[in-house]
């Protein structure tokens, strides 16, 4: 059976940072020299925004199944509607389910109170508005900072506008996340992903989300301020479709622009359906992306799911 795929193989990155520089100094965050990486005083509260969604949900599963983190963290999952089935499922798995809305700043302090780590993700597509996404990112960072949170993880994307030196400005859902990143006071961890036939792009199995964060959770001081590219590998679209075809037994091929249905004039189509050659030239993570990814992989200690394994 023939199939076709669009190359909306984005990628994301997580930016982690210590939310308050003064707090960091006061607490004397253990360094590698002073304390073993796994040193922890208590079972800590770990607040996960988007816990009912893909990224947050994958992180919840990773932490609950992890032999060490499952004992070190109490998980608090944030949702706008604690009565929804996804939230109730979390509660059944011993996650404390709390209600808050990133668009209602007053709801945030109670859910981050007493937290040690906060994972935050925004859903650009709910409003398709860069302004809303930036506002949400800033208020959650403010709330975490005010609560004295020690480690703050921001699910981000690179600024395509910056990477292409202003030539491409239509990737608002990338640029708006990167702008929030500029607002964050300090520190970093990046997680990414993937997109044309010969252009290789970073690609991730979303279920691996937690594996990229494990090293930073064990040794926050070492990872503070770092961006961590999160991708299994750089794949070309040809590799993706060839593997997909082989594993599923179905013929998967990429549609050409000529084969796409007539445009409906939506924002998404206008801005994202045509691959921008400038983005291809610069590379999704910039020219140093592949080398940075190799460096990151050397520091991970869990096997990542390949595209082939994902399809099995
Ligand atoms: N798909 C890709 O290739 C790709 C690549 C890179 C980055 N991204 C980015 O990933 C983000 C989406 O992440 P995802 O796929 O994990 O999301 P998702 O599965 O669609 O879930 C969205 C989550 O965000 C929560 N949420 C949404 N609005 C909220 C609000 N106002 N207050 C509190 N929580 C809110 C939802 O919780 P409740 O509904 O329970 O309240 C839900 O848990 C987007 O911003 C997108 O740009 C996607």
Walk me through this protein's architecture:
With 312 residues, the chain is α/β, with parallel strands linked by helices. It has a single domain (10-235, 286-306), classed as Rossmann fold, CATH 3.40.50.720. Helix content is 41%, strand content 17%. The chain contains 16 helices and 11 strands. It has helices at residues 21-27, 54-65, 69-72, 85-92, 108-112, 124-127, 130-146, 160-163, 172-183, 209-218, 220-223, 237-248, 267-272, 277-282, 289-299, 307-311, and strands at residues 2-5, 13-17, 44-48, 73-79, 96-99, 115-120, 151-156, 200-203, 227-229, 233-236, 251-254. The strands form 3 sheets. The chain has a 7-stranded mixed sheet with strand order 5-4-3-6-7-2-9, with helices on both faces. A two-stranded parallel ribbon has the order 1-11. It has a two-stranded antiparallel sheet with strand order 8-10. Helix 7 (130-146) packs parallel to helix 9 (172-183).
Second-tier CATH architecture: 3-Layer(aba) Sandwich
CATH homologous superfamily designation: NAD(P)-binding Rossmann-like Domain
- Rounded mean pLDDT score: 78
Structural shape: globular
CATH topology: Rossmann fold
Distance between the termini: 18 Å
**Share of helix among residues?**
40-55%
Please give the count of helices. Answer: 16
**Ranges with pLDDT <50 over ≥5 residues?**
1-12, 16-41, 187-195
Query: How many beta-strand runs?
Result: 11
Biggest beta sheet summary: 7 strands, mixed
Residues in β-strands, percent = 15-25%
Strand order of the largest sheet: 5-4-3-6-7-2-9
Salient structural properties:
312 residues; alpha/beta; Rossmann fold; seven-stranded mixed sheet; two-stranded parallel ribbon; 41% helix; disordered N terminus; binds NADP nicotinamide-adenine-dinucleotide phosphate; NmrA-like domain-containing protein; NmrA-like_oxidored; NAD(P)-bd_dom_sf
């Amino acid at each position: 059976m023939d199939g076709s795929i669009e190359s909306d193989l984005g990628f994301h990155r997580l930016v982690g940072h210590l939310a308050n520089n003064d707090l960091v100094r006061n607490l004397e965050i253990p360094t590698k020299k002073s304390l073993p990486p796994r040193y922890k005083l208590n079972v800590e509260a770990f607040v996960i925004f988007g816990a009912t969604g893909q990224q947050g949900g994958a992180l919840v599963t990773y932490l609950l199944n992890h032999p060490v983190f499952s004992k070190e963290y109490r998980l608090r999952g944030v949702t706008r509607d604690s009565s929804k089935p996804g939230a109730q499922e979390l509660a059944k798995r011993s996650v404390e389910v709390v209600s808050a809305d990133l668009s209602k700043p007053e709801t945030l302090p109670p859910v981050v109170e007493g937290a040690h780590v906060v994972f935050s993700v925004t859903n650009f597509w709910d409003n398709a508005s860069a302004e809303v996404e930036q506002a949400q990112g800033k208020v959650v960072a403010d709330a975490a900072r005010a609560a004295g949170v020690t480690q703050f993880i921001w699910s981000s994307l690179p600024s395509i506008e910056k990477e292409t030196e202003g030539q491409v400005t239509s990737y608002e859902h990338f640029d708006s996340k990167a702008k929030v990143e500029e607002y964050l006071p300090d520190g970093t961890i990046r997680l990414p992903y993937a997109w044309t036939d010969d252009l290789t792009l970073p690609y991730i199995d979303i279920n691996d989300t937690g594996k990229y964060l494990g090293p930073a959770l064990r040794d926050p001081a070492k990872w503070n301020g770092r961006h961590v590219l999160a991708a299994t590998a750089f794949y070309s679209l040809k590799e993706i479709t060839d593997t997909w075809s082989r594993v599923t037994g179905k013929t998967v091929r990429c549609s050409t622009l000529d084969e796409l249905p007539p445009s409906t004039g939506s924002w998404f189509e206008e801005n994202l359906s045509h691959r921008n050659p400038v983005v291809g030239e610069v590379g999704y993570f910039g020219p140093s992306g592949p080398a940075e990814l190799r460096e990151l992989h050397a520091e991970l200690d869990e096997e990542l799911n390949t595209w082939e394994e994902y399809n099995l």
